[in-house]
Each structure stands twice: as C-alpha cells, then as structure tokens.
Amino acid sequence: MMTRTVDATQELAAFLRTRRERLDPDDFDLPSRRRSRRTPGLRREEVAELAGVSIDYVVRLEQGRGLRPSADVVEALSRALRLGPDERAYLFGLTRQRPRTTEEPATAAAPQLARLVADLSPLPAMLMNHRYDILTWNPEMGRLLRDLDTLPPARRNAMWLCLMHPGMRDFYLDRESVVREGVAHLRAAWAAHPEDRALSELIAEFTLRDAEFARLWNEGDVKVNGRGRKEMRHPDVGVIAVDFEVLMPLQDADQRLVIFRAADGGSQAALDRLGAA
Questions:
Q1: Mind spelling out the 3-state secondary structure of the chain?
Q2: Residue 3 pLDDT > 60, yes or no?
Q3: 146 and 254: one domain?
Q4: What residues make up the domain containing 46?
Q5: pLDDT tens-digit map of 145-178
Q6: 76: domain CATH number?
Q7: What is the top-level taxon of the source organism (predicted)?
C-alpha cells in the first residue's frame, strides 16, 4: 500500500482555511458587516486585516498557489488566527520558517522535572537551560560537581564552573575538549536566542576573562552535543568516567535534563564511595 507524502503547499492552504473557519467573529473587535455571513468563521479579508497583509495574499495562500510566507508573515498569521503553541509550530514547519523565540529563558526548574531529577537518584542528574545555568540537581550530582549549594544562583552555571571556579580548573582530564564542546553549544544557543541579553553578557564575560574561551569562540565551531563521555578527577575519590545523556522535554523545551552513568566498574565504585561519604 502506497502512502502519500505531505504536500506542504496544499496542507498549508487547508490548515489556514480550517483555522479561519473555526473562529467566532464575535470574539474579535472587527467592523460589523451588513450582509449576513454565509460561511463559518472569519472572512479572508478579516484575517488579512488582522495579519496586516493583503486580501489577495490570503486568497493565494488558501488556494495553495505556491507562496512561501516570511517568518514575520507566519507570526502575524499565527496571531490573527489565534493559534496555540503546537499549531504555531506546525504552521512554521509547513512554511519551512524558523519561529522567533519570544519566551523568557527558564530560570527555575519545572516542578515535574525537579521531581524527576530527584527520582533519578542514585544516578547523578541535573536540569539546565540553554545558557548552561543549573536549575536543579540531585544529591549525587551535587557531590560530584561540588560547591553547587554554596554558590550564588548567578554562578550556578556549568560553563562558569569549568572556566572560572578555582576548584574546577583541573577537574576534567580532557579540559580542552570539554571547553570546546561548551563553546560550540553556547554559539548555537546564542544564534537561536538572539534576544537573550543575559546569554550575550555571559559570553562577553567569558571572552574577556578567559583566553582559552576567546580563542575557541573565534574559531566559530557550532555543535549541540547530547551524548558523550567525560572523565573527571574528583579530589575525594579519584578519576571517574561517566557517560552522559541530555534530554529535552517536549513541554519545557528550554530545559535540558542531564543524566550521568558510570562508564566502567571503577567509576561506579568511585561514585558509590562518594555517595557513602
């Protein structure tokens, strides 16, 4: 049995029509019309007025005539049609445009995710946002990374710990690889969140205060690494190798769940000793 591939142009046309037709004109502050409505929902000219585009443009979109709206037009149509977050993302996907990020970055862990981090014990786990700010962690991660409880919230940042914390300078055996991956991630986050002033200020601080960061930043590498291995030299229990996994929840896309697992028997024994301390 053959299945049809998605015709994005025709699906866009149908999606716009169905979203328009489901709207109640009484919910909008629009001029009253003398003639009665013969079709459900808003008229095309009303959507055009709300979105700030021409009526002809809306007609051509709904007729599937091969237009590719800009990101600004897609955003305007989303507002005009009162699309929910999932529908907005779908509209951007159909038009092959990238939505602008308007929400504030997460600065606190979602309660459900905070509980999940705690439930992941004895695996070390933590929750971060796109800046590498550490939002919450379980006791195992706290003992592994050390000093998280004593740091002010503004300094609970994985990249700041690696670059600036005196006790972490020699923490990673392959420090350059860890820093290089972190810089590449921050560059990707910086491009995806151009409005995030705090991120820009953080990058400026790192560039000014750390020559290694500045050198790697100027190389322009971009990478989002969600899986890998790190080797750490813990002052209390020695070398620990961990495999890490980074997961992004659908409902809280700016939060990243980071889970560590011992990479070998010796590392597991070291983590066990750390947990018993």
A1: CCCCCCCHHHHHHHHHHHHHHCCCHHHCCCCCCCCCCCCCCCCHHHHHHHHCCCHHHHHHHHCCCCCCCCHHHHHHHHHHCCCCHHHHHHHHHHCCCCCCCCCCCCCCCCHHHHHHHHHCCCCCEEEECCCCEEEEECHHHHHHHCCCCCCCHHHCEHHHHHHHCHHHCCCECCHHHHHHHHHHHHHHHHHHCCCCHHHHHHHHHHHHHCHHHHHHHHHCCCCCCCEEEEEEEECCCEEEEEEEEEECCCCCCCCEEEEEEECCHHHHHHHHHHHHC
A2: no
A3: yes
A4: 8-94
A5: 987 888 888 899 999 999 999 888 889 999 989 9
A6: 1.10.260.40
A7: Bacteria
